[in-house]
């Protein structure tokens, strides 16, 4: 009974011995992997809501995982150098832009800055704030060594600053002092009276500094900003028009003169709206200019030309 | 010619059977994997529920395994460490409490255990201490460990003769400053692996 079937099955196994063995081995391997996976226990780490590399401004944005330890190590190294008064080593960790824009390329200025913060041994905490254009912005709190003092005789307070990590070639460099980036703008506007070049802007966390080169093409004095008038130079940020913050800056050029000025505006880096235009709102080509507020009205009455100039930034 | 056709039909059948076996084996494996993953997820959900209920029933001081301790919330762990420290003082386990202090803190304020013991007896008290938590702030730093600053009130329920004597000559403002307000600063490296300091009056 069933002899034919038994023979068929035996022949089948005989003929396909190799394939069957291979299938069995593969199956056993898969079974083994499953078994090992079920045995593997995940290491339990301390439960914490602290996520230093996820942006607080936009939780969907985070620093790439491969950069985490590099950045954390970098900040730790920098703080250690500052604590140990190794200012040159700390300075060398900064990007060239940061050295030049935030500290005028002067290590002594950097040293003064660090000494004003690190008056004693400090600790720090770090949290990713925002990320854009390969720039990782971290919120860093620098505070006294509370573990050593237990907050004895002192109030809970900290120095608050933004550190930006930027790629300089293959290296990641540090921007401190709330300096974030330098952008070359190279915007030029020229008319019969003037040539104005917006060379660059230095972006800090809470303000922007525009480097402007102005040429007076006339035979008269050109006044763009006096210390006694308002709304002379304005940054157009969408619906908001902001006056320059270095209000004591006088921009007055003699006939044919060319000069560079640094004009600052209040603007937070995390604002949604970018700066749209720089407006030179009250350009005066004057026959005479005394710099006195009392004479200003008369000088304007005698002016060769009064006009406004808007230079788009986007 | 006919034989060849017959052979090819048999080959086809055999291949079909083999493919069937392979498919069945794969299905068995997939079912096992799904079962394993589902069990794992359920276990995790059960774990988190356990943690939540333990928080609700306020059992930060219960005996917990290392794994359970690591799964506690940061706030509960800090409360646990602070309560343990105050319990050490309360039970006059000064060597244990002294061992928990940060080395730099000890150097500045309590170079010897005797000095620490004397301070605790005079200014904090032992026997019936109670602690109320007002606020906890984390200063995060993965490199050297998270630092937590706690604002607490620590009182000797039975009163402290030394403190009472001191307060007799104090203004209300000074009394307020000298009351149970205290900061406890904790550096946590791992569960139950921490050092601390506190504001000295």
Question: Can you give keywords for this protein?
Answer:
heterodimer; A: 314 residues; alpha+beta; 6-stranded antiparallel sheet; 14 strands; 30% helix; B: 201 residues; 4-stranded antiparallel sheet; rod-shaped
Please characterize this protein's 3D structure:
The complex is a heterodimer of chains A (314) and B (201). Chain A is an alpha+beta fold and 314 residues long. Chain A folds into two domains: 113 residues, NTF2-like, domain 1 (Nuclear Transport Factor 2, Chain: A), CATH 3.10.450.100; 132 residues, Conserved domain protein (Immunoglobulin-like, Sandwich), CATH 2.60.40.1640. Chain A contains eight helices and 14 strands. In chain A, the strands form three sheets. In chain A, strands 8, 9, 10, 11, 13 and 14 form a six-stranded antiparallel sheet that branches. Chain A is elongated, with a radius of gyration of 33 Å. The mean pLDDT of chain A is 91. The relative contact order of chain B is 0.10. By secondary structure, chain B is of the alpha+beta class. Chain B contains eight helices and four strands, in the order H-H-H-H-H-H-E-E-H-H-E-E. Chain B has two domains: 57 residues; 125 residues, Nuclear Transport Factor 2, Chain: A (Roll), CATH 3.10.450. In chain B, helix 3 packs antiparallel against helix 4. In chain B, strands 1-2-3-4 form a four-stranded antiparallel sheet. Chain B is rod-shaped. In chain B, strand 3 and strand 4 form a beta hairpin.
Topology:
The complex is a heterodimer of chains A (314) and B (201).
Chain A: H1 3-15, H2 17-39, H3 65-83, H4 87-92, H5 96-103, H6 107-117, E1 122-132, E2 135-144, H7 146-149, E3 159-168, E4 171-175, E5 179-190, E6 194-204, E7 207-216, E8 221-225, E9 233-237, E10 240-243, E11 251-253, E12 258-266, E13 277-286, H8 293-301, E14 305-312
Antiparallel strand pairs in A: 1-2, 2-3, 3-4, 5-6, 6-7, 7-12, 8-11, 8-13, 9-10, 9-13, 13-14
Chain B: H1 2-56, H2 66-71, H3 74-90, H4 94-100, H5 103-109, H6 113-124, E1 129-139, E2 146-156, H7 161-168, H8 172-178, E3 181-190, E4 193-198
Antiparallel strand pairs in B: 1-2, 2-3, 3-4
């Amino acid at each position: 009974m069933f002899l034919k079937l038994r023979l068929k099955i035996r022949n089948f196994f005989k003929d396909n011995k190799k394939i069957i063995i291979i299938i069995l081995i593969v199956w056993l391997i898969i079974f083994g992997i499953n078994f090992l996976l079920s045995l593997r226990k995940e290491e339990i780490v301390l439960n914490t809501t602290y996520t230093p590399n996820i942006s607080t401004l936009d939780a969907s944005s985070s620093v790439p995982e491969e950069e985490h330890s590099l950045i954390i190590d970098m900040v730790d190294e920098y703080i250690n150098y500052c604590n140990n008064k190794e200012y040159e080593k700390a300075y060398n960790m900064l990007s060239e832009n940061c050295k030049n824009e935030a500290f005028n390329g002067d290590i002594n200025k950097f040293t003064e800055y660090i000494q004003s913060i690190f008056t004693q041994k400090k600790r720090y905490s770090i949290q990713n704030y925002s990320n854009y254009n390969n720039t990782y912005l971290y919120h860093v709190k620098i505070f006294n060594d509370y573990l050593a003092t237990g907050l004895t005789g002192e109030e809970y307070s900290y120095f608050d600053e933004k550190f930006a990590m930027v790629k300089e070639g293959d290296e990641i460099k540090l921007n401190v002092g709330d300096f974030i980036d330098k952008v070359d703008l190279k915007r030029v506007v020229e008319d019969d009276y003037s040539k104005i070049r917006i060379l660059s802007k230095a972006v800090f966390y809470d303000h922007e500094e525009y480097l402007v080169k102005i040429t007076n093409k006339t035979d008269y004095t050109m006044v763009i900003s006096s210390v006694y008038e308002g709304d002379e130079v304005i940054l157009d940020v969408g619906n908001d028009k902001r006056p320059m913050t270095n209000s004591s800056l006088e921009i007055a050029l003699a006939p044919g003169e060319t000069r560079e000025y640094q004009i600052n505006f209040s603007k937070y880096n995390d604002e949604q709206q970018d700066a749209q235009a720089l407006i030179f709102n009250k350009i005066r080509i004057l026959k005479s200019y005394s710099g006195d507020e009392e004479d200003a009205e008369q000088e304007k009455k005698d002016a060769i030309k009064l006009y406004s100039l808007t230079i788009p930034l986007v | 010619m006919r034989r060849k056709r017959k052979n090819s039909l048999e080959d086809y059948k055999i291949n079909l059977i083999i493919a069937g076996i392979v498919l069945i084996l794969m299905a068995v494996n997939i079912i096992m994997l799904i079962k394993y993953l589902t069990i794992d997820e359920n276990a995790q959900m059960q774990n988190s529920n356990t943690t939540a209920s333990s928080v609700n029933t306020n059992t930060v001081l219960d005996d917990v395994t290392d794994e359970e301790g690591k799964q506690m919330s940061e706030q509960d762990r800090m409360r646990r460490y602070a309560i343990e420290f105050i319990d050490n003082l309360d039970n006059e386990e000064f060597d244990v409490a002294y061992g928990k202090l940060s080395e730099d803190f000890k150097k500045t304020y309590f170079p010897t255990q005797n000095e620490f013991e004397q301070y605790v007896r005079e200014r904090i008290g032992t026997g019936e201490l109670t602690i109320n938590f007002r606020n906890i702030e984390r200063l995060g730093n993965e490199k050297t460990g998270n630092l937590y600053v706690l604002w607490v009130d620590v009182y000797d329920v039975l009163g402290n003769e030394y403190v009472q004597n001191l307060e007799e000559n104090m203004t209300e403002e000074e009394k307020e400053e000298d009351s149970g307000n205290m900061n406890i600063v904790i550096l946590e490296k791992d569960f139950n692996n921490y050092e601390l300091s506190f504001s000295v009056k």
